[in-house]
Amino acid sequence: MYELEALSRLLTADKDVNSLSVDTLSYIGDAVYELFFRLKTLSEAKRRTGYQHELLVKLVNASGQSQALVEIEELLTEEDKKVVNRGFNSRGAKRRGNDIEYRRATALETLVGYLYIKGDFVHLEEILSKVVADVLAR
After folding, report:
1. Is 120 an active-site residue?
2. Average pLDDT, the chain
3. Residue 29 — very low, low, confident or very high, per pLDDT cuts 50/70/90?
4. Is the pLDDT of residue 91 over 80?
5. What gap in Å lies between CA 118 and CA 62, rounded to an integer?
6. What is the dihedral of CA 69, 18, 122, 116, to 10 degrees?
7. Using the 8-state DSSP alphabet, how is residue 99 labeled?
8. N or C: which end of the chain has fewer CB within 10 A?
9. Is residue 109 exposed (0-12), middle (13-18) or buried (19+ Cβ within 10 Å)?
10. What pLDDT sits at residue 47?
11. Which has the higher per-residue pLDDT, 92 or 74?
12. Which letter does DSSP use for residue 93 in this model?
């Protein structure tokens, strides 16, 4: 039990998720998303040096994240949809003009960051597991 408590203290933030900007949520979401995929592709790292990195580059990018957002749509709650909409319409998402893939990717990262900081790990795991399953099925 001590290990879980230590992990919880190490990897959680004592912050009200609603007080954070969309850009902050997206920034955290990007890190969580990439770490999740790095851990899920560890078995691929055994094949040869760099293979895991090559796989991650294909998975963790605007195009892949944009597609992932579309694929998880049926799992989204009304609250999730509001967070996604905030991320999609944020200034950070619009930096590349009207690049829909980039805006969707930012929206997904915002949702991941929101769920992570909120501590809704069950729903976050449900969403990310679906993304992994869909990506590996491609």
Report:
1. no
2. 87
3. very high
4. yes
5. 24
6. 70
7. -
8. N
9. buried
10. 65
11. 74
12. G
Question: Are the CB atoms for 126 and 75 separated by under 8 Å?
Answer: yes
Q: Which residue is it, tokens 């009304």?
A: 78
Amino acid identity of residue 117, one-letter, is: I
Residue 114 tokens read as 């929101």
119: left (phi over 0), alpha (psi -120 to 50) or beta: left
Among candidate residues 30, 99, 120, 134, the one labeled active-site is 30
Long-range contacts, stretch 56-60, CB < 8 angstroms, 24+ apart: 59/135, 60/33, 60/34
Task: Locate 13 and state its tokens.
Answer: 């933030």
Contacts within 8 Å (CB) and 24+ apart, 127-133: 127/72, 127/75, 128/33, 128/36, 130/71, 130/72, 130/75, 131/68, 131/71, 131/72, 132/36, 132/37, 132/40
Tell me how far apart the alpha carbons of residues 86 and 21 are, in angstroms, rounded to a whole number: 10
Residue position matching structure tokens 């909409």: 85
pLDDT value at 30 more than 80: yes
Among the residues of the chain, which ranges form H helices?
A: 2-11, 22-40, 51-59, 62-71, 78-88, 100-118, 121-137
Domains in the chain (CATH in brackets) are 20-137 (1.10.1520.10)
